[in-house]
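Quick one, probably user error.
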């Protein structure tokens, strides 16, 4: 073979090997890129699946031990389920709650839990939440809106029934006759309105029972004491019983009665609502006669509702929490079993 022909043959062979090598490298690079892309997508999908739910909780405040127990229940359940909970304490002001909900909407939370301080004035902000596709779960108090699709469900006790149970117990204890002073909750709130309504319905069959004075104690112990002091000064010796819309106001009333030189639970009967541990302690001490339970441990039910609605399930508009009546006869037996 001539020298030039041999050289051309070797050159052609080198070019063919180079071409094969380039094609092989390109194929390997393509595979590596595809694998990296798939791995990145898989990692991203996995991260999306493990992202915790973000839930905003607008709480009324910390005006009572009952409210504190409810907040703890919500917090504990969120931690248990790995939920990113955004808690906002409104300090008893509706405008603060509305600001909180607007903030939750801006943060694009997955759901909102709301304990409304009053019943009215929620329609605009709840309409915004609905437009943003964020479900709202109401706990312990309801709202009055023209369109009930603005919230998913209400998880709460039957406040009217609670007031009625308190009235029935007191009517029996007073043998159907006596003067009653009433310590009301926050004006405009569902429990205050409904517990008053239920109590009035409960004493209606007893002509001898009369509510002689009624004033708000704002669901706080300090205000309950202040109002009770005024009641005792206005009608000394004429008060047979106290009906308080919550235990904290009843405990404040007990202080006022003692400072007036009277014996709470004996000289003046006291019935209240909530069933917090301090109320059981007062019953064991003989100072409070009866409390109607209103269970604040709503965390599990609230987050069950959140998970169900986000899964596309339909919930009942009202989920009623069952409550019971406790008095001095059973307080000592059950106090150690109380969770709040």
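Nope, works fine. Designed sequence:
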């Amino acid at each position: 073979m001539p020298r030039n022909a041999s050289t051309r043959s070797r050159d052609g062979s080198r070019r063919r090997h180079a071409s094969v090598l380039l094609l092989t490298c390109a194929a390997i690079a393509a595979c590596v890129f595809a694998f990296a892309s798939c791995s990145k997508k898989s990692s991203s999908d996995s991260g999306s699946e493990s992202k915790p739910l973000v839930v905003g909780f607008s709480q009324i405040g910390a005006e009572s031990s009952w409210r504190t127990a409810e907040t703890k229940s919500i917090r504990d359940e969120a931690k248990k389920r790995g939920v990113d909970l955004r808690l906002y304490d409104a300090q008893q002001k509706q405008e603060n709650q509305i600001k909180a909900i607007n903030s939750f909407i801006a943060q694009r939370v997955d759901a909102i839990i709301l304990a409304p301080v009053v019943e009215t004035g929620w329609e605009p902000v709840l309409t915004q939440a609905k437009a943003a596709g964020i479900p709202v779960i109401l706990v312990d108090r309801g709202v009055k809106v023209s369109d009930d699709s603005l919230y998913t469900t209400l998880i709460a006790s039957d406040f009217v029934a609670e007031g009625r149970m308190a009235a029935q117990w007191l009517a029996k204890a007073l043998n159907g006759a006596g003067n009653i002073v009433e310590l009301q909750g926050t004006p405009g709130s569902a429990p205050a309105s409904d517990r008053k309504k239920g109590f009035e319905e409960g004493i209606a069959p007893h002509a001898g029972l009369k509510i002689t004075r009624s004033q708000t104690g704002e669901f706080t112990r300090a205000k309950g004491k202040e109002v009770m002091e005024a009641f005792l000064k206005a009608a000394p010796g004429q008060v047979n019983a106290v009906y308080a819309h919550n235990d904290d106001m009843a405990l404040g009333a007990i202080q006022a009665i003692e400072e007036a030189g009277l014996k709470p639970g004996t000289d003046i009967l006291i019935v209240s609502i909530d069933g917090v541990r301090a109320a059981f302690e007062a019953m064991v001490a003989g100072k409070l006669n009866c409390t109607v339970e209103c269970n604040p441990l709503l965390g599990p039910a609230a987050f069950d509702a959140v998970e169900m609605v986000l899964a596309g399930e339909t919930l009942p508009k009202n989920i009623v929490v069952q409550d019971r009546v406790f008095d001095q006869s059973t307080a000592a037996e059950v106090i150690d079993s109380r969770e709040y």
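The chain has two domains: 54-157+297-321, 159-294+326-337.
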